[in-house]
Amino acid sequence: MRDISYEHYSWTLYSPVSVTMPVEMKTRFPLEDEIKYIESTMHKKKMKISQAQYAFFSDWRKNNYIFRANVVRTLHGDFLVISRFREK
After folding, report:
1. Which of 29, 58, 65, 85 has the most CB atoms around it within 10 Å of its CB?
2. What is the distance between the alpha carbons of residues 61 and 88, in angstroms, rounded to a whole number?
3. Mean of per-residue pLDDT scores for the chain
4. CA distance linking residue 40 with residue 49, whole number of Å
5. pLDDT digits (tens, 9 = 90+) for 59-85
6. CA separation (Å) from 54 to 3, 11, 66?
7. Residue 47 has pLDDT above 70, yes or no
8. How does 25-60 read in b/e, with b if 16+ C-beta sit within 10 Å?
9. Nearest Cα residue to 22 out of 71, 88, 85
10. Is-contact 44 13, C-beta < 8 A?
């Protein structure tokens, strides 16, 4: 998903292995809300998140952009929503 007017881009990804974030992760709860949020962003291939262990988020800055990642870690990999915004 992208919104040019706000220079906002968002990607939903699945990785079969655990993803290492560029900066320290921050806990975010409740887990069920994160699962619903990430599942709702899967536009082309709807996948159900099962066997979730925990959810967290991370944010960082690079090249005048702010990145935010919401992650649900499962027994079989990570589901992520990564957003990018222009830093003002």
Report:
1. 58
2. 12
3. 86
4. 11
5. 899 998 899 999 999 999 999 999 998
6. 29, 20, 24
7. yes
8. beebeebeebbeebeeebeeeeeebeebeebbbbee
9. 71
10. no
